[in-house]
Amino acid sequence: MYLTIKQTAEYLEVEEAQVRQLIYQKQIRALHDGEKYLVNDEQFTTHFEQIENYKQLVQEIFDEPIPESVDVKDED
Length: 76
What we know:
Elements: E1 2-3, H1 5-12, H2 16-24, E2 31-32, E3 37-40, H3 45-63
Antiparallel strand pairs: 1-3, 2-3
């Protein structure tokens, strides 16, 4: 599905100016129909999958218990 710059900005939760800049830098692929740019939203699927994988990895790291140090001695 094709989105306008405004819809793309809402979809990515960024400013419209940033979307325009990314299009001009060719970091976001877009079609120009003579009046406006149209962005295919399927190009962001991999990006969102990578973000989700990263969140899971971070959560796994936080859930991992801290190992006891071999240098810690109980001196009670």
